[in-house]
Design brief:
Strand content: 5-15%
Shape: globular
Order of helices and strands: HHHHEEEHHHHEH
CATH class: Alpha Beta
CATH topology: BirA Bifunctional Protein, domain 2
Structural class: alpha+beta
Number of strands: 4
Distance between the termini: 67 Å
CATH architecture: 2-Layer Sandwich
Length: 239
């Protein structure tokens, strides 16, 4: 999928993290990284659409920009040293709901899936879902093929059970303290230059898809529930 020169180019960004340098070398970026990344994303679309038909595979929406957002960062270097995409459901807020993640960096190839940055409302809906579907969630995140391929579920947890959920069954407290739930691994970037990258990525996305789907359906149902509560109700007929 990617030539070894793609990894060399990413190393060059680390050494020449400058907008003027990038503009001068943009044709190399397009040929070595952007076009192969679009091709990989479209291969994921072809493989995943039969089971994830509603997800967003449009490169304009799914792919990340190579330019960093430096507005609120002390690091003002303009370029990322990795390049990739995130596949999400259009019914959830971008970068907040659950999705599938891939990037190629100079030092790593990263694969992930799950929810990383839920909003406060999404987190509450997620935690309520943990209580409601505890057995299902535990079965999903402990599935043997998934944990063998990706390792254990990751994510930060609160020190205490949130006040709103103090009445949750004690057996669910480890879940409701969670602030994130995702799978993530880093592999050698050389894998991106070898045959079978699309198959490897598809297999891992497929294994993570039950969790991603459950999270997104939980969040979408919660949003619809709030909208239904706010919507004016027609009076019931008397007869």
């Amino acid at each position: 999928m990617f030539k070894p020169a793609a990894i060399s180019f990413l190393r060059s960004i680390e050494k020449n993290n400058d907008r003027a340098w990038f503009v001068a070398n943009k044709p190399r970026f397009v040929a070595l990284l952007h076009e192969p990344m679009v091709e990989l994303l479209l291969k994921m679309q072809k493989r995943l659409t039969p089971m994830l038909a509603d997800y967003q595979f449009d490169p304009k929406r799914a792919m990340y920009r190579i330019y960093r957002d430096t507005r609120f960062s002390k690091d003002k270097t303009p370029l990322k040293t990795h390049y990739g995409f995130q596949i999400q459901h259009p019914g959830v807020t971008k970068n907040l709901g659950a999705g599938f993640y891939f990037h190629l960096g100079a030092k790593e190839l990263a694969i992930g899936g799950g929810i990383y940055m839920p909003s406060a409302e999404e987190l509450l809906a997620l935690r309520l879902g943990f209580v409601r579907d505890e057995a299902k969630v535990r079965a999903m995140i402990s599935e043997k093929k998934l944990t063998k391929a990706m390792g254990p579920a990751q994510g930060d947890s609160a020190v205490r059970v949130p006040r709103l959920l103090e009445g949750a069954p004690p057996g669910t407290h480890d879940l409701v303290r969670r602030k994130q739930i995702f799978f993530y691994q880093e592999l050698s970037p050389k894998i991106a230059t070898e045959p079978g990258l699309d198959r490897l990525l598809f297999e891992r996305f497929k294994l993570m898809s039950p969790l991603v789907e459950w999270v997104n359906h939980t969040l979408i149902a919660a949003v619809r529930g709030r909208e239904d509560d706010r919507a004016p109700k027609r009076p019931e007929p008397m007869f």
